[in-house]
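Q: Could you fold this chain for me?
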Amino acid sequence: MQTELSRTLGAEHAVFGFTPFPAVAAAISRAGGFGVLGAVRYGAADELARDLDWMQEHTDGLPYGLDVVMPAKKVEGVTEADIEAMIPGTHRAYVEETLAKHGVPPLPEGEASGWRITGWMEQVARSQLDVAFDYPIKLLANALGSPPPDVVRRAHDHGILVAALAGSPRHARHHQEAGIDIVVAQGYEAGGHTGEIATMVLTPEVVRAVDPLPVLAAGGIGTGEQVAAGLALGAQGVWLGSVWLTTEEADMHSPLLTRKLLAAGPGDTVRSRALTGKPARQLRTEWTDAWDDPEGPGPLPMPLQGLLVADALTRIQKYEAEPLLGTPVGQIVGQMNSTRSVQAVFDDLTRGFERAIDRINRIAGRA
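A: Sure. Below is the predicted structure, expressed as C-alpha cells.
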C-alpha cells in the first residue's frame, strides 16, 4: 500500500491516520502508516508540547504529523470572553433544561470543565504551531480550509508539507491556489466536519481538479478493500479517522461510549451542528436530536456552539449519561465491531488490500 506520496514522507503504507490520541498516532506510525495527531483539544501549548515529547519517544524515528484547526483569515483582538458574551441566555437555558431532563448533575464544586473548543480560535492554533515547529513533524494538516498564507510559508520554510481538507472540487482548487501540497477529499460519510458529496464521487473529481497535487481519500474507509478503491479512484493515499476510536490504544475515558461505538451500525450516525455549530457527522443521540429539534433554539454558529456546550459535554462524559453520550464518528462505525490493536487494524487493512488487488487481477486476466 505504498505510493509516491508515502515514499516521499517515509511511510511504508499510504495510510494516514488522524487521531486525538498520541498513543494511537505513534502506533500508526510504528505500524507503517503515517500518524497525525489532532491538536484541537489542546487548550494550552505546554500540554501539546508534553504529548509531542511523548510522540518523539515512541515513534522510533518514524514520520508523523499534526492537525490543527484555524481559519484562513485572521481575526484580531477577539478573546474567548468576547465570544462567550455573544451566547444568548436562551441557549444557555436550553442546555440546562436538556441536561436536567436526563438527570445529569452539575460538576462537583471546584472541578473545572474539561476540554473546551478553544482550539478553533486562531490565536490558540498559532500558539500550537509555535510549539509544533520545534519538532520534526513532516505534515501539517488544517481541518478548516487553507491555513493563512504566512502559516503555509512558515511550514514550507521548515520543510513541512501542508494538507487541507476539502468537501468539494471548488474547495480543492482554492487549496491549490493557496499553495497547499496535499488535498484531503473528505466525503459525506466521514466523521467530524463534512460536506455533502460522497467519497466515491468526490475523490476522482478532486483528483482531476487539482492534478498534479496528491489527493488523499477520506470518508467511509476502514477496510483494505476500501483503501484499494480510494487508490483506484486516483488518490495517493487514504485518510482514516473513525476506525482508530475503538483500538486498544485509544483513551476514550468511557467504557460505555466504546460499547456504543462497537454496537452502532452505519445508520446510527447523523450530520448535525450540535457539537461545533458546523455540520459534523457523529453518533445520533438524544443530545443531537435536541439540537436538531425545530422546536428548540437551534445551534449557534462556530465557535459559539462549541463554547456553549463544552461544560455540558464534560458533564455528559463524566457521568456517562447514556442517552446523550456520543462522539464524532463516520458511517464506517458499522464495521468497528471489536476492540483491536492498531497493529491488528493494519494487518487487516493489508490483507484486505491484497484480496482486492488479487480480485482485480483475476478480473483483468492477470492472475
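A (continued): The mean pLDDT is 92.
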